[in-house]
Design brief:
2 copies of one chain form a homodimer. By secondary structure, chain A is α+β, with helices and mostly antiparallel strands. Helix content of chain A is about 60%, strand content about 15%. Chain A is built from 6 helices and 3 strands; from the N terminus they run αααβααββα. Chain A has a 3-stranded antiparallel sheet with strand order 1-3-2. In chain A, strand 2 (about 70-75) and strand 3 (about 80-85) form a beta hairpin. The longest helix of chain A is centred in the C-terminal third of the chain and has 18 residues, at about 90-105. The interface of A and B includes residues 3, 5, 19 and 41 of A.
């Protein structure tokens, strides 16, 4: 295929631009996918499911919270601290858009 | 959902581990998707479709070639150098596996 034919793939260029880097990063994709699927997950579950250290998971959760994609609620269960994470509406919309852009990239042509 | 229920999502953990970082990186995902869809693309087409600098595209093409995912053929068209890029069988298999792992991650639950 030559350069002149680039115009045949306009949806791809758009999808490529739209691919949300906040979600695309592997760990954050894992977090968001888990939260969308389960509706809620605690810190320990995310850590074990994704095989992450406390620090690594915390870093990515903080970034997702700053972007408004997740809500983090800290509480106590008896004497033990408990961290519950849920996706926000903004996060759900962003995830849907991400999946849509990804499908357009992968299934282009 | 609590930690005890982690066992309900075994396919997710596996898919997460399998997600090929060589392909997942955004630029390389763009390159591989384009090559799989078009079967062949020249340097200029990839550069313009993905909106990359020569240096950035070259870096990612070199890495994909080192991994055996693509074949790069340099030639001349008249006096102009021409670089043709095609996916290898290894690259096609890796791409299929990547897409499969991605689908399992995104559609988990």
């Amino acid at each position: 295929m030559t350069t002149e034919e680039t115009a045949r793939t306009p949806s791809f260029s758009g999808a490529f631009e739209e691919l949300d880097e906040t979600i695309h990063q592997k760990v954050r994709l894992g977090i968001m996918s888990t939260l969308i699927a389960l509706k809620e997950a605690d810190f320990k579950l995310l850590k074990e499911t994704l095989g992450l250290s406390d620090g690594n998971l915390s870093t990515h959760l903080t970034l997702l919270e700053e972007r408004g994609y997740i809500h983090i609620q800290k509480s106590f269960r008896g004497r033990k601290p408990h961290t519950s994470v849920t996706p926000t509406d903004t996060g759900r919309v962003a995830f849907d858009r991400y999946v849509s852009a990804l499908e357009r990239i992968i299934k282009q042509s």
